[in-house]
Amino acid sequence: MYVILMGPQGSGKGTQAARLAPRLGLTLVATGDLFRAAIAAQTDLGRRIKAIYDRGDLVPDEITVGLVEEKLDDIRRERALGEGVAGALFDGFPRTRAQADALDAALAARGERLDRVVQIEVPLETLITRLTGRRVCKRCGTVYNVESNPPRQPGVCDRCGGAVVQRDDDKPGPIKERLDLYFAETAPLLADYRDRGLVEQVDGDQPIERVTEEIARAVERRSAGQKVEG
Ligand code: AP5
Ligand code: MG
């Protein structure tokens, strides 16, 4: 099963993906997390994309698609070894028409297809408040919020004890740039997914646990429907 979580920055994709991937038995493919890891490890890729990332611009499609294809191959290998991976949950990918087309082609080349696109909706003012208040663990990536979901001890990750900090792109300039890019480049992809009958909308302006339940129901409904049809 291959599922995309789609929504503007701050809609809760990362928060929800971390909760849902294990529950659904899906491998999490979060391009933003892959880029942050490369930047932190100061790999060649990390050095190439750091300035782009910090500005809030999109990393070039070839780089992004290449990383996702590697992940799809990992999943195929794990499935061949019988490791019980049911597919992938995409967070932050695709974001452009070229990436969406590349994903369809990459899945088709591996005998797979997209099953569901979950659109998470949150009012714009709430997005900006959430992004401004977001903090993340430098070590394990757990997402917090100074207002709605703070760590028990300020600045220290509940899960791993790592330092909890603000992301370099969660400053007013990059936040605006990223939201503008979402509405210009990414939101238009939903029309095509809707025509293909793949989109399920979820109200993301509710408590985190409630949003998780709604997304899980949307995905499970779809996979149950497919079993009945097929
Ligand atoms: P990425 O890491 O994907 O960031 P993003 O798209 O900017 O999305 P966010 O992570 O900001 O939002 P989110 O929806 O995950 O929200 P979260 O759960 O954290 O990408 C970063 C950069 O990498 C891009 O700018 C680009 O440079 C590059 N990149 C990545 N993918 C790319 C691609 N495909 N192509 C090209 N470049 C790419 O939640 C936000 C806050 O809200 C948190 O504080 C959280 O605690 C809080 N919150 C969440 N849910 C709730 C709730 N229900 N109630 C109250 N608070 C909540
Ligand atoms: Mg995220």
Task: Explain what you see.
The chain has 230 residues and is of the alpha/beta class. The protein has nine helices and eight strands. The strands form two sheets. Strands 2-3-1-4-8 form a five-stranded parallel beta sheet, sandwiched between helices. Strand 5 and strand 6 form a beta hairpin. Helix 2 packs across helix 3 and helix 4 packs parallel to helix 5. The protein starts with a strand and ends with a helix. The mean pLDDT is 94. Bound molecules: BIS(adenosine)-5'-pentaphosphate and magnesium ion. The site of BIS(adenosine)-5'-pentaphosphate has 37 residues, from helix 1, helix 2, helix 3, helix 6 and strand 6.
Note the topology.
Blueprint: E1 2-6, H1 13-24, E2 26-30, H2 31-40, H3 44-55, H4 61-80, E3 87-91, H5 97-109, E4 116-121, H6 124-133, E5 134-137, E6 143-145, E7 164-165, H7 172-186, H8 189-195, E8 199-203, H9 208-229
The protein binds BIS(adenosine)-5'-pentaphosphate (AP5) and magnesium ion.
